[in-house]
Amino acid sequence: MSSLGLQRGCRIWPRRLQFAVPLYRGQPPFSAAQSRCLSTHHEPSIERTRNIGIIAHIDAGKTTTTERMLYYSGFTRRLGDVDEGSTVTDFLPAERARGITIQSAAVTLAWPPFSSEVPQNITDLPKSHVPHTINLIDTPGHADFTFEVLRSLRILDGAVCILDGVAGVEAQTEKVWAQANNYSIPRIIFVNKLDRDGATFERTVKEIGTRLRGWPAVCQIPWWEGGKGRFTGIGDAINLCGLKWQEGGDGKDIETFSLQGLAEEDPGLREELLKARNALVEALCEFDEELLSTWLDCGDDALAVPAQAIRDSLRRCIIDGTGRLIPVFAGASFRNIGVQPLLDAVDDYLPNPTERPDPEISMGGQKASLSDLLSGNLDISATSGKKLAKKSNTPKALVAHIEACALAFKVVNDARRGVLVYVRVYSGSIKRGAPLWNTNLHLTEQAQRLLQMQASDAVEVSHIPSGQIGVIAGLKHARTGDTLISYPGVNPRIGPPAPLSTLQLRPIDVPAPVFFAAIEPHSLSEEKNVKEILQLLLREDSSLHVNVDEESGQVLLSGMGELHLEIARDRLVNDFKAKVTMGNIEISYRECVLSPTSPHRINFDREVAGKKGKAACEASIEPFDEFTSVTDQTVERDGNHITVQVLEANAQGSEEGYALPPELPLASIQAALINGAAAALARGPRRAFPSTPATLAVKSALDAAFASASIGLMEPVMNVVINCNEGTLGAIVHDLSSARGGHVLSLENDGNDDASSDVPAIDAKRIYAPPDPFASSGSADATGPGQQRQVTARVPLKEMVGYLKHLRSLTGGRGTFVMSVDKFERLSGPREKAV
Predict the structure, then answer these.
(1) Which residue windows are coiled coil (predicted)?
(2) Is 57 annotated as a binding residue?
(3) Is 139 annotated as a binding residue?
(4) 676 assigned ligand-binding residue
(5) Which of 505, 540, 574 is the C-terminal boundary of a domain?
(6) How many CB atoms are located within 10 Å of the residue 749 CB?
(7) Which of 429, 521, 652, 723 is most exposed, with the fewest beta carbons within 10 Å of its own?
(8) Where does the pLDDT of residue 527 fall: very low under 50, low under 70, confident under 90, or very high at 90 and above?
(9) Any known ligand binding at 122?
(10) Which stretches within 137-183 are classed as H helix?
(11) 61 in a labelled binding site
(12) What is the model's pTM?
């Protein structure tokens, strides 16, 4: 086929190439019920599995895009609407009432839908021509629900980042992008809402380079009708074709135009599409030597480079998750434009579970990869501290008995099914009825029922294989971040042989809460019920904390923000029917140690269960900073660093009679001491505020520090990013600096790069993007009254309570802001007295 024609591999709906005619008419191959039934009969292949998340700033169109994906895959038979409260993934009453996503929801779909029609030579076709199982998680965009995003990213293999084509790269987008960088998640970008007034694809693409610090590889360009009309479709720079969607339809009627067809239909789009192909190939050649070689073989002709070679190159460039190169796609989900090609991109470019790095594990203080353990290459005898004499207890023999290893990343209390634990299986297969050893809690629970979740619905399955995301119903104790091991014949009390009983996958980081509010039961008889409900709520959301004030006896619920606590209150009252009242939202302060203390020793000598018990513990505390040395025995808990040293029997300095019982594992002692220290550090000696995270000895050391006036008070200071127009910039800066005691760090034009980033800046002038037909007359460097500006500041959290209403009054309702915890800083004298 000519290099100017439609190249082989252009997406086909339903299964053959057509030009200037509708490609997909009528209903999908199967109804929703049939599709779900078929999915239970298709054992998902790990190579054809995609575990992806939808991430973005709030109101960028995540849930709307997810709804279209479900509709085109045949999972649903109607398009859900956020405004109507009829979406699949936003099923909580609070989500539908507010029109926002509050908790991440998992759903499994197949793209393309499973059918009896299978291509003959699938090796010569793009991956998107073969049905793939997509486990999709729709995440929240509000900053208060950052933990929902974090625990989803922890178990994902890829992500689709959605940008608002009008707003561009927003503050929360930068935050979730940085979080994805921390987990090295391969990503693609979908520029949404290009049908809206003010949509600017060109500016958004350049902001991707300057703000997200990755090179945007424009794979699709917008198709404006007549060059300056409505948004009607996309130009595909990979397959050199144009895709036009029927106006007002459900998105299934698509016309495909080759370059020859575009010469008649829209010559301007054809010319821009050729520029886009040249820019795409040139960009990939800078990152991928293999495509560079192909390009040279084609005589430096970007149009002659095969489409499949470009797909393979894009996949190689993003699979490491560094974000150095970012494929960019275009569409308008609400108008049903561009979602099917986006699903193709998920299949073609995002990795399957086997293409991701080996999961990191820790075991007995030793860190390694899970594959090293399972292959027998890890010396677990050194980890256990004991010689494995029996042949049945050799490292390979012990590891061979591990049937499955999984991470619990989410817990939900379902009104019909009870407590549901979402897991990602990293090795083996969890089978129905299998005993699961919880290596964090050191107990065994049985996997009574296994489910494949479809948002609020579920399909029961017999097992959850490696690489898949599933749900276990009936677990009474498992929490977010717990590692579960299926080990046949395990003793429910002592678990697998050491050190396998302590094996843990990389945990999920839980951000510290900064707001709290008092919870008051309506009666004394209601206290027990409220306590149980709070425990359920805390299992669901580990970023919530509950403390009891010793002086007042009040129950204090802590969270990430005002909306976070408001949602928690609604769930308590409306979902769990608790008879409680929540007080005003307050700020969570901390206490800090100002100087080191001498060691404090506590002797324990009493009868326990009829037997005499004797032990001793010594503790000392000191301030921690970035220069403090950290050893392998140091564990971080709630921002504190706890170092445990257990004296062995007959060690120098140990007293007679203090030898460790031989049957008591060293790891269990260390875990108990760490938990005891964390419990003692949970409350400071000065004002009973949460302090840096053992019990009697640590408390004694804290009391001594307080007696010597070595305890200070700390408050949370926030990083605040405010977006406003030029006309209101002065009022906002004055308010932050004078009225709220904040420090303005930078004033930028919206779209300028961030000089504080460690990643080299990308020159926006070198980035290819098609010109916007509706671009405003002012350039990006203009500073007129309507120009968008960004204010970055550090402000005490106390001054930011209720700030949104004040910002709206200053900006006429057009200002927005995002804030995150920077760090806790010691209060000055006057501010401390005020507190």
Answers:
(1) none
(2) yes
(3) yes
(4) no
(5) 505
(6) 14
(7) 652
(8) confident
(9) no
(10) 146-153, 171-182
(11) yes
(12) 0.76
